[in-house]
Amino acid sequence: MIKAVSLSEAEILEELVGPADSSLSRRVAQELLSLEFSVAAKETIRELLQKNNAGTITDVEQETLQNYTRVGQFLDLLQAKARLSLMQSGSSL
Fold first, then answer.
1. Contact 61, 48 (CB under 8 A)
2. 75: Cβ–Cβ under 8 A, 6 or more apart, which residues?
3. Of the chain's two ends, which shows fewer C-beta atoms within 10 Å, N or C?
4. What does the mean pLDDT of the chain come to?
5. Residue 33 DSSP label
6. What own/partner pairs with CB < 8 Å and gap ≥ 24 does 75-80 have?
7. What is the pTM of this model?
8. Contact call for residues 13 and 73 (beta carbons, < 8 A)
9. Is 35 helix (H, G, I), strand (E, B) or coil?
10. How far apart are CA 14 and CA 61, in angstroms?
11. C-alpha–C-alpha distance, residues 10 and 66, integer Å
């Protein structure tokens, strides 16, 4: 039966890669933990957030900020799973 609620992309991705199943190898977990946005991307995000807070963000910039946010949420999920995998295998972060 289909639920009568709207799920965000992050909620759907959590069902797929959520940290509940800590089945990542040590090497894969460590690689995932090393992923981060580039310096240039972080600066872009910072500028977009400032424009958003000031109310001067354009529609295109708002869409870009939302895309960065969704990718960041996905990365957060992957890294949570990686941390859990390492902790449950007895490896250090």
1. yes
2. 35, 36
3. N
4. 87
5. H
6. 75/35, 75/36, 77/10, 77/13, 77/14, 77/17, 77/18, 77/19, 78/17, 78/32, 78/35, 79/32, 79/33, 79/35, 80/18, 80/19
7. 0.76
8. yes
9. coil
10. 26
11. 12
